[in-house]
Amino acid sequence: MSYAETEVLIIGAGVLGAATARELSRYRVDVTLVEKNVDVGWGITKANVGVVNQGKDTLEFRPEYRRSHLLWRSLAMMEPLCAELDVPFRKVGGWEMCWDMKMKEKLDKLARRTESLGLGKDRFYWYPELKEMEPNVSPKILGGLHDPDIAVVNPVYLTQALVENACDNGVHLMLETEVLDMKAGHHWFEVATSRGDFRARYVVNAAGEWVDKIAAMVGADDFVLFPIKGYVGVLDRRCEGLVNGLVSVLPEEPGDMNIVVPTVEGNLLFGIQLQINRRGDHSTTEHMARKALENARRLVPDISRENVINAFCGFLMLRNYEIGWHECEVGMSGRVPRFINMTIGYPGVSASPGAAAEVVEVLRKDGLKLEPDPKFNPRRKGIPDFSRLSDKEKSELIRKDPRYGHVVCRCETVTEGEIVEAIRRGATTLDGVKHRVRAGMGRCQGGFCGPRVTRILARELGIPESEVTKKGGDSTHLSCRVKDILGKEEGDG
Ligand SMILES: Cc1cc2nc3c(=O)[nH]c(=O)nc-3n(C[C@H](O)[C@H](O)[C@H](O)COP(=O)(O)OP(=O)(O)OC[C@H]3O[C@@H](n4cnc5c(N)ncnc54)[C@H](O)[C@@H]3O)c2cc1C
User: Fold this and answer.
1) In terms of domains, do 479 and 459 share one?
2) Domains in the chain, number
3) What is the pLDDT of residues 150-206, one digit of tens each?
4) Same domain flag for 247 and 301
5) Among candidates 212, 173, 456, 393, which has minimal Cα distance to 317?
6) What predicted TM-score, i.e. pTM, was given to this entire model?
7) What is the CATH number of the domain that holds 361?
8) Considering the domain boundaries, does residue 492 fall inside one?
9) 154 Cα–ligand 1 center, Å
10) Does residue 12 line the site of ligand 1, with CB under 6 A?
11) Which residue from 34, 317, 346, 471 has its CB within 8 A of the most atoms of ligand 1, so it is best to mutate?
12) Domain that holds residue 233
């Protein structure tokens, strides 16, 4: 059998696999990143609220937990990384609030622990003062602890940028390539994929929801993960400004988080309802939707059902549900040499730069030769966001490329120029365009722009419109043209 060979095979182009690929692209080493989906960042990374957690909730982030250290290591890395990759990063600040004095005591304890760990001094504000910063939270709130450092990113943009930059620096990306089986040999792993067989000296298993299944292929699954489904609701852009930063209250019962948070793009997310669930089932349930909205309205009463334009569920793969979200697997398997497991239930986005740096250190320690590549370019330029440009910048862009003067998605003001650029950078589907430039993300959810984006995709990819898919595979959405049917009927008649 003939094998394609690679030094390091990374399985999964979620935020963790992407960050690792980009970190390795600093060196002269042969790296292949395989992803079963048609695009990157469509696993758990897509079903996320995008908060850059500061690891200050020291009940969740105890010093004895490894994931705490990965997160704390990442804190200074995320903002410069986003600047290098031209990924929007917004420091919005965040609140942990309370309804009564009993909860306030918990917040006081939290604040003392945060300070004792040298993680900063968060200040408590009583409602009248808090109201000045967050005027729309319920007056029933007693007060809240404010963390000015909380930031938000778009985890899919971050993943796309990491992959783009990694590929510019020599990483091979293989999409629609599913790892089906693997054997561990003395010197190589033999990996069977849906696109042929590989031989890899090292494997980094960053397969998200399926990380333990991949590990089990070679017996490196000496950990148990519990899939916990999390529900998140999306609010219309007209709610922009209802909250300025992350607002949350201490959970009153397990699985009942209550947060409302702005995205970098301006609309709000709310949730997160958690429940232990069979993995692979990403459906939202009426119960989760009702409970999440009820909670959000308790916190910010002006949120209404009519403002909910979408919802999604993702999986937190947690080491131990009973004790919380405390551990992670990032490091060389204790059982299988040269096999690295990489999973962080929460907060994998926030901890991704530190986790990637850690994996590179583990590889180096194991003997992988990592010579810096003098040609490494850390910079990447993002797609211009037309809707956020000044009038002068808009005119300049339209002068250079008139397609920026043609608005295709009216809800989010996305132009043809942005859509064409998204396709040039790898979008091949409607969702690929949507997750790069937001066409179809707004109130009408693609009802207006969907057919227009389909036409542009078909034109740019040189395929018939009927072959354009929503998200790859058999997700085509046009079976034929209505005019063709009418024409036929007229002819027949
Ligand atoms: C509701 C919710 C909210 C969250 N909010 C936050 C937050 O605010 N901040 C934060 O930091 N974290 C948050 N998290 C956690 C964070 O989303 C995850 O820790 C992180 O996205 C995990 O990334 P990953 O790369 O490990 O997994 P994934 O993104 O799932 O990537 C794994 C990839 O592997 C691919 N794959 C799987 N099997 C195979 C195979 N056999 N062959 C090839 N490819 C394969 C998948 O298609 C996928 O693309 C949240 C999670 C949830 C569920």
Assistant:
1) yes
2) 3
3) 999 999 999 999 999 999 999 999 999 999 999 999 999 999 999 999 999 999 999
4) yes
5) 212
6) 0.94
7) 3.50.50.60
8) no
9) 13
10) yes
11) 346
12) 91-151+226-318
